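Narrative of accomplishments. A recurring question from our advisory board has been how the design workflow behaves on a single, concrete structure rather than in aggregate. To address it, we present the structure tokens for one chain from the evaluation set, followed by the sequence designed for it. No filtering or post-editing was applied between the two.
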């Protein structure tokens, strides 16, 4: 009996292996659920979070549906089917392409579908599903240069670009002799660099290159001619390390998609969305996107100004304190924050602290910008206080005022006149610096600018609109600050 059972189990394992499943068979899924923390977490909360960079048509991009921006494309369709087969809802988190793997490792997302190739380098930090699509590599050029370029061999000592952190970038670096290769985050920015003659060609996966060329008559696709390894033209789902059960389920969905021939259907649906995006590409048609971006930019700026001012005031008094511990803490904080880029601080707050606290992107953005601003505000306030003549303090002491009353009634009212202009400049700069939060998917003005570029295939017009909106915000604030500065001078 045991021998028969053993043979039966062996046959079942072989059967599932031939069906293309991974090393864990579906018969063992429920028994090993507890060994896959990612799968267990997904099932418990009832949704799976997809990480993607929606600027890579037809894989993933955005379109306007009922006045709202919606993620669409082949990868989005596959992600929806994965979620459906898992019996959970799908949540989509957009971020820059080169932040996706970090987001997966820090549990911000549960899987990545972003036209990502399962390269050996990436497999060191994440796992991949079975391949679900093979696209091939092409080069996008300006149509007017069609007679100059035939394949990669034509770009020797030329300028080419590819998406940062992508297989295409590595192929260009290794296989185009003498070429100057530039990495650019967004697909729309790659096209803009090409159209403005900053680069001579853009290396892209064939479907994406064809999508851009189909919607822009000034562009042309030529063959890449790259020597490709087994994974250089393949696309798979990226998963956290040690997620065997989730991998089995996703591979099962991928097999079903292949068996039913759904990929052509998904690509056709993506093509229809691409066509609808170019029906009306006027900037007035996208006013809601820009309005939403302005709203988020102002929200982040106001919150950061408030918390930054409180933090800066506290740090300034700590640095001026005679208490050596308080002084040392303030100095260390101020010097460290001023000595590191805001982008790094933002990524640390969102991804680093995300290992312990799952902060929403907007909250992480406000915290990072506030903490950064606090360091600069502290120095502005400290400089203003130190600018007051020591005789003012001595006069206040002769009147018998306490240290607290000296600062409150004598020093600060005078220091505020000196502080206000520099403080106003910091607040104005904050509106512009807050644009960095777009890299983690906060829908501020820069993020919306990228959406409009992706939707319309227009590179310059959305930038002009964003520039005008930023100018209106900063100019209006500068006039308000000048008004109060005048009042201080006449006080």
């Amino acid at each position: 009996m045991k021998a028969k059972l053993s043979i039966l189990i062996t046959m079942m394992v072989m059967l599932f292996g031939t069906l293309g499943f991974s090393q864990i068979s579906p018969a063992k899924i429920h028994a090993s659920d507890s060994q896959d923390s990612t799968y267990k977490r997904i099932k418990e909360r009832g949704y799976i979070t997809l990480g993607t960079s929606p600027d890579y048509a037809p894989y993933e991009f955005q379109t306007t549906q009922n006045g709202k921006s919606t993620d669409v494309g082949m990868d989005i369709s596959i992600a929806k089917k994965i979620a459906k087969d898992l019996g959970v809802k799908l949540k989509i988190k957009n971020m820059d392409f080169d932040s996706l793997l970090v987001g997966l490792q820090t549990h911000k997302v549960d899987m990545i579908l972003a036209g990502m190739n399962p390269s050996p380098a990436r497999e060191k930090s994440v796992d991949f599903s079975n391949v679900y699509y093979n696209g091939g590599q092409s080069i996008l050029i300006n149509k007017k240069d069609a007679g100059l370029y035939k394949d990669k061999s034509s770009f020797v000592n030329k300028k080419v670009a590819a998406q940062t952190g992508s297989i295409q970038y590595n192929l260009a670096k290794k296989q185009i002799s003498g070429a100057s290769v530039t990495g650019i985050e967004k697909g729309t920015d790659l096209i803009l660099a090409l159209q403005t003659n900053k680069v001579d060609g853009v290396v892209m996966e064939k479907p994406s290159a064809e999508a851009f060329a189909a919607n822009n008559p000034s562009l042309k696709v030529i063959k890449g001619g790259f020597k490709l390894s087994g994974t250089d033209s393949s696309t798979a789902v990226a998963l956290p390390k040690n997620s065997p059960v989730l991998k089995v389920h996703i591979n099962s969905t991928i097999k079903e998609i292949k068996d039913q021939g759904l990929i052509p259907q998904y690509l056709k649906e993506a093509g229809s969305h691409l066509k609808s995006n170019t029906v009306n590409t006027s900037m007035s048609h996208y006013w809601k996107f820009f309005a939403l971006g302005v709203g988020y930019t102002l929200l982040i700026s106001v919150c950061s100004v408030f918390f930054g001012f409180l933090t800066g005031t506290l740090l300034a008094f700590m640095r001026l304190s005679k208490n050596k511990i308080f002084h040392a803490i303030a100095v260390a904080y101020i010097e460290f924050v001023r000595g590191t880029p805001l982008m790094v601080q933002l990524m640390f707050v969102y991804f680093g602290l995300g290992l312990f606290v799952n902060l929403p992107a907007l909250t992480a953005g406000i915290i990072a910008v506030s903490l950064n601003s606090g360091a600069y505000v502290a120095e502005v306030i400290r400089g203003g206080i130190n600018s007051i003549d020591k005789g003012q303090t001595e006069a206040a002491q002769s009147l018998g005022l306490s240290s607290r009353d000296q600062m409150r009634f004598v020093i600060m009212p005078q220091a505020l006149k000196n502080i206000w202009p520099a403080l106003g400049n910091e607040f104005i700069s904050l509106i512009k610096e807050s644009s960095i939060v777009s890299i983690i998917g906060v829908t501020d003005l820069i993020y919306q600018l990228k959406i409009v570029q992706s939707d319309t295939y227009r590179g310059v017009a959305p930038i002009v609109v964003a520039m005008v909106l930023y100018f209106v915000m900063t100019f209006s604030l500068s006039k308000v600050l000048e008004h109060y500065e005048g009042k201080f001078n006449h006080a």
